[in-house]
C-alpha cells in the first residue's frame, strides 16, 4: 500500500469507526497496522503520519546507540539512518549520536587505519600510470598481482555474465572460489579492523560467521537490477567486474585491477583521464568491449580487501548516500546505493565521487 492509499484508507475508516477504538499506544507498540483503529502504533506510523498521539511517549524508547546508519529496521520503533530525516521516523537521539561530525570522525579514523594496514597495496614503484598516452597503465609489477588476495580476486572475474538482464548462475567451483576469496581477505589486517569497527558501531554482532555472512550478502547474493528482470547482478559483479547494458554502455566497473587486466587484454580502450587526485584516486572514461563508460572512478594500487572494506563500511554506515571522510589529509566521498530496498543489505553500487 502506498502512502496515499494508506492515508486515504485510515481517513475513511476514521469516519466509520469513530467510537470505541483505542486512540492510545498503550499495549500496542509495534503491532501490525489495524485499520479499524483510529490511529496506529506500528513502527511505520511516523512515516504515514497516522501515529496515536502518545506513540512517541509510549513506544519510542529505542535509541540510536550503536545503530547509526543502519538500514530501515521494521522491528525497531524508530530509525537511525539518513532517510529517517525525510520520513520523520528518527529516534530522538539520532542527531546527537549520529550527527555528521560524529560519523565523519569515526569513518575518518577507521579509513586511515585501514589505509595504514593495507600492506598488500602496491608501492609507488610497483606501477606506473601514463597520463599522456592512450593506455593508462604503463607498468604493473606482476609479482604484486600474485599476492593471495589479488590472485583470488582475479579468479572471480570470469564468473559472471556481464550482460544486464541475463540471469546469473554459479557453478559449484565458482562458489568455492568465492568462499576461498572471502577466507583469504578475512585473514588480512584490513578485514580484522573492519570487523572490529562494524561490531563497535552496532552493524554486526561479535561473530566471525556473522561478518562473513554480511560480506556474502553485501557482495555476492544475486539480485535483479530491474524490477521485473531476472537475478542478473550482484555487488561484486557490478563494482569489481563491471556490467554491460543493452544500450551499449558500461555500468559499474570500479576496480583498478579489472581495468588493468582488461586494458592489457585489449578489451578496454582508455579515452580520457578525467581527474587524478590523492590519495590514489582516478576517474577515467573508456570503452569496454566497445561499450562506453563516460566516467568510472576507482582507487589505484589498493588491495582487494581495502576496496571491499571501504565500500562495505560506507554501504552499512551511509546507506544510499554520500559517505564522506578524510584519508591522508584529503577528502574522500563515496556514493553508495542499496539495491531496491530488499530485505538485508545488498550493494547496488558504491564508488568514489570525484
Ligand atoms: C513497514 O513498511 C514496509 C514497507 O515500506 C513494510 O515492508 C513493513 O512490513 C512495514 N512494517 C510494519 C510493521 O508495518
Ligand atoms: C606514455 O604514452 C606516450 C604515448 O603513447 C608514450 O610516448 C610514452 O612513452 C608513455 N610513457 C610511459 C611512461 O610509458
Ligand atoms: C569479540 O569477542 C572476543 C572473544 O569473546 C573478544 O576477545 C573481543 O574483544 C570482542 N571484540 C569486540 C570488538 O567486542
Ligand atoms: C596531515 O597533515 C598534518 C598537519 O599538516 C601533518 O602533520 C601530517 O603529517 C599529514 N598526514 C599525512 C598522511 O599527510
Automatic annotation (TrEMBL):
<protein>
    <recommendedName>
        <fullName>Uridylate-specific endoribonuclease</fullName>
        <ecNumber>4.6.1.-</ecNumber>
    </recommendedName>
</protein>
<dbReference type="Pfam" id="PF01033">
    <property type="entry name" value="Somatomedin_B"/>
</dbReference>
<feature type="domain" description="SMB">
    <location>
        <begin position="60"/>
        <end position="102"/>
    </location>
</feature>
<dbReference type="GO" id="GO:0046872">
    <property type="term" value="F:metal ion binding"/>
</dbReference>
<keyword id="KW-1015">Disulfide bond</keyword>
<feature type="domain" description="EndoU">
    <location>
        <begin position="90"/>
        <end position="354"/>
    </location>
</feature>
<feature type="signal peptide">
    <location>
        <begin position="1"/>
        <end position="22"/>
    </location>
</feature>
<dbReference type="GO" id="GO:0016787">
    <property type="term" value="F:hydrolase activity"/>
</dbReference>
<keyword id="KW-0479">Metal-binding</keyword>
<keyword id="KW-0540">Nuclease</keyword>
<keyword id="KW-0255">Endonuclease</keyword>
<keyword id="KW-0694">RNA-binding</keyword>
<comment type="subunit">
    <text>Monomer.</text>
</comment>
<dbReference type="GO" id="GO:0003723">
    <property type="term" value="F:RNA binding"/>
</dbReference>
<keyword id="KW-0464">Manganese</keyword>
<dbReference type="InterPro" id="IPR039787">
    <property type="entry name" value="ENDOU"/>
</dbReference>
<dbReference type="InterPro" id="IPR036024">
    <property type="entry name" value="Somatomedin_B-like_dom_sf"/>
</dbReference>
<comment type="similarity">
    <text>Belongs to the ENDOU family.</text>
</comment>
<dbReference type="InterPro" id="IPR037227">
    <property type="entry name" value="EndoU-like"/>
</dbReference>
<keyword id="KW-0732">Signal</keyword>
<dbReference type="GO" id="GO:0004521">
    <property type="term" value="F:RNA endonuclease activity"/>
</dbReference>
<dbReference type="Pfam" id="PF09412">
    <property type="entry name" value="XendoU"/>
</dbReference>
<dbReference type="GO" id="GO:0016829">
    <property type="term" value="F:lyase activity"/>
</dbReference>
<dbReference type="InterPro" id="IPR001212">
    <property type="entry name" value="Somatomedin_B_dom"/>
</dbReference>
<dbReference type="InterPro" id="IPR018998">
    <property type="entry name" value="EndoU_C"/>
</dbReference>
<feature type="domain" description="SMB">
    <location>
        <begin position="21"/>
        <end position="59"/>
    </location>
</feature>
<keyword id="KW-0378">Hydrolase</keyword>
<keyword id="KW-0456">Lyase</keyword>
Amino acid at each position: 500500500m502506498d502512502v496515499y492509499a494508506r492515508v486515504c484508507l485510515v481517513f475513511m475508516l476514521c469516519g466509520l469507526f469513530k467510537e470505541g477504538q483505542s486512540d492510545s499506544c498503550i499495549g500496542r507498540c509495534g503491532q501490525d497496522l489495524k485499520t479499524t483503529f483510529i490511529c496506529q502504533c506500528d513502527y511505520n506510523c511516523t512515516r504515514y503520519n497516522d501515529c496515536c498521539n502518545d506513540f512517541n511517549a509510549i513506544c519510542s524508547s529505542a535509541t540510536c546507540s550503536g545503530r547509526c546508519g543502519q538500514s530501515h529496521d521494521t522491528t525497531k520503533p524508530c530509525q537511525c539512518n539518513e532517510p529517517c530525516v525525510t520520513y520523520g521516523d528518527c529516534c530522538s537521539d539520532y542527531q546527537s549520536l549520529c550527527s555528521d561530525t560524529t560519523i565523519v570522525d569515526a569513518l575518518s579514523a577507521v579509513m586511515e587505519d585501514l589505509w595504514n594496514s593495507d600492506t598488500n597495496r602496491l608501492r609507488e614503484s610497483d606501477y606506473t600510470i601514463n597520463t599522456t598516452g592512450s593506455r593508462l597503465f604503463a607498468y604493473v609489477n606482476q609479482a604484486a598481482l600474485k599476492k593471495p588476495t589479488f590472485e583470488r580476486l582475479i579468479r572471480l572475474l570470469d564468473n559472471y555474465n556481464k550482460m544486464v538482464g541475463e540471469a546469473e548462475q554459479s557453478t559449484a567451483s565458482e562458489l568455492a572460489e568465492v568462499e576461498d576469496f572471502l577466507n583469504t581477505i578475512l585473514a588480512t589486517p584490513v578485514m580484522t579492523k573492519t570487523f572490529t569497527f562494524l561490531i563497535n558501531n552496532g552493524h554486526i554482532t561479535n561473530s566471525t560467521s556473522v561478518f562473513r555472512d554480511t560480506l556474502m550478502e553485501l557482495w555476492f547474493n544475486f539480485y535483479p537490477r530491474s524490477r521485473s528482470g531476472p537475478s542478473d547482478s550482484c555487488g561484486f559483479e557490478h563494482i569489481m567486474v563491471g556490467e554491460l547494458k543493452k544500450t551499449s554502455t558500461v555500468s559499474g566497473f570500479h576496480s583498478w585491477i579489472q581495468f588493468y587486466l582488461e586494458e592489457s587484454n585489449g578489451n578496454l580502450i582508455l579515452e580520457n583521464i578525467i581527474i587524478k587526485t590523492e590519495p590514489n584516486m582516478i576517474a577515467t572514461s573508456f570503452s569496454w568491449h566497445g561499450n562506453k563508460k563516460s566516467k568510472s572512478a576507482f582507487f589505484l594500487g589498493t588491495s582487494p580487501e581495502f576496496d571491499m572494506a571501504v565500500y562495505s563500511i560506507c554501504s552499512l554506515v551511509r546507506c544510499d548516500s554520500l559517505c564522506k571522510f578524510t584519508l591522508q589529509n584529503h577528502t574522500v566521498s563515496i556514493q553508495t546505493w542499496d539495491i531496491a530496498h530488499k530485505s538485508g543489505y545488498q550493494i547496488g553500487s558504491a564508488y568514489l565521487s570525484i
